Amino acid sequence: MPDSLLNSPEVAIIGGGPAGLMAAQVLVRGGAHVRVYDAMPSVGRKFLLAGRGGLNLTHSEPADRFATRYGEAQAQVSAWLAGFGSTEVCQWAQALGTETFVGTSGRVFPKDMKAAPLLRAWLHELRLAGVRFSMRHRWTGWSEAGELRFDTPTGERRVSADVVLLALGGGSWARLGSDGAWVPWLAARGVAVSPLRPSNSGFDVAGANGQGWSDFFRSRFAGQPFKSVALRFSDARGRRFARKGEFVATDTGVEGSLIYAASALLRDEIEASGHATF
Ligand SMILES: Cc1cc2nc3c(=O)[nH]c(=O)nc-3n(C[C@H](O)[C@H](O)[C@H](O)COP(=O)(O)OP(=O)(O)OC[C@H]3O[C@@H](n4cnc5c(N)ncnc54)[C@H](O)[C@@H]3O)c2cc1C
Fold first, then answer.
1. Is 257 near ligand 1, meaning CB less than 6 Å away?
2. What is the pTM of this model?
3. Burial of 17 by CB count in 10 Å (0-12 exposed, 13-18 middle, 19+ buried)?
4. 103 pocket-lining for ligand 1 (C-beta < 6 Å)
5. Phi-psi region for residue 34, left (φ > 0), alpha (ψ -120 to 50) or beta?
6. Which DSSP string corresponds to 24-89?
């Protein structure tokens, strides 16, 4: 292997969400030449949208309890959290000038409840460290010669890199850039890709009559938060969920932090039996 590849490889990171930006930060510090490509005119659009809800950065609960939130991936994620857990997330934000606080629910937020100042400071630091950015570059797969292919406003561009890191997000909120279009491209190259599934999602309710919320309920409560609620659920496989928190009624169902925390279990049950009752 050439020395340049070991010491300062050319790394192409495709996807400039928080995952791609964090990878860029670590790799550039390690001596790599890093360029971030993104389909959108600017990076971090979903991160900015998350800021509208105050940007819940992490949770203050003990590490062993925090890890249970990752469900079946708990063992794998625990190892990552041991290296970079909630304390490190807060230290990272603080180093970028964003102080954090712990809300009544135990969740951790920036004191200004905004994502934009944090993103601005992060991008400034990345640029100073040498990370380069190519926006409006939609990756469309590989050429026969193995180059990366991008659609750009000036036509197709082909790029070679020593290392390629895909940080493409999932398939939610496609208008912010993450459309999951890449799944078949990877599958065609023999890469095992887990099917994209909803996570941290809200749900439509069927209600007792199978009709969803009544007109009366919807007109009075859609958009309203319900606080100090306990959600209990156990599925056919004996997995249990019990937690207190809050949720929001929507036009057709429920969403919010307590629902999101239970959403993987509820999703699995709906996939298995068509419905879930909690
Ligand atoms: C309304 C809302 C509120 C949220 N609130 C919170 C919160 O409070 N706290 C929290 O932790 N999380 C929150 N999230 C979730 C959080 O935003 C995501 O988990 C996070 O953005 C995922 O980061 P990512 O880097 O993996 O993917 P993304 O942020 O989706 O970034 C992926 C990037 O890849 C780019 N891309 C995709 N395909 C291509 C392609 N073919 N070529 C080039 N570029 C491509 C996209 O343009 C995008 O910039 C919220 C999400 C939403 C929608």
1. no
2. 0.92
3. buried
4. no
5. beta
6. HHHHHHTT-EEEEE-SSSSS-HHHHHHGGGT---EE-S-HHHHHGGGGGGHHHHHHHHHHS-HHHH
CATH of 3-55+113-188, one of 3.50.50.60, 3.40.140.20, 1.10.357.10, 3.30.70.2640: 3.50.50.60
> Amino acid identity of 265?
L
* 163-166: strand order across its sheet: 132-134, 33-37, 10-14, 163-166
Give me the tens of pLDDT residue by residue for the chain, a chain 278 residues long. 556 566 789 999 999 999 999 999 999 999 999 999 999 999 999 999 999 989 999 999 999 999 988 888 999 999 999 999 999 999 999 999 999 999 988 999 999 999 999 999 999 999 999 999 999 999 999 999 999 999 999 999 999 999 999 999 999 899 999 999 999 999 999 999 999 999 889 999 987 677 899 999 999 999 999 999 999 999 988 889 999 999 999 999 999 999 999 999 999 999 999 999 99
Type of residue numbered 235: D
In the reported structure, the alpha carbon of residue 166 is separated from the centroid of ligand 1 by a whole-number distance in angstroms of 13
* Contact 15 CB / ligand 1 (< 6 Å): yes
Indicate the residue type of 40.
M
Tokens standing for 99?
């102080």
Residue 173 Cα to ligand 1 midpoint, Å, equals: 8
Number of H helices, E strands in the chain: 10, 14
Using CA atoms, how far apart are residues 42 and 180, in angstroms rounded to an integer? 18
| Whole-angstrom Cα Rg for the chain | 21
Residue 67 in contact with ligand 1 by CB distance below 6 A: no
> Where along the chain do its domains lie?
3-55+113-188, 203-273
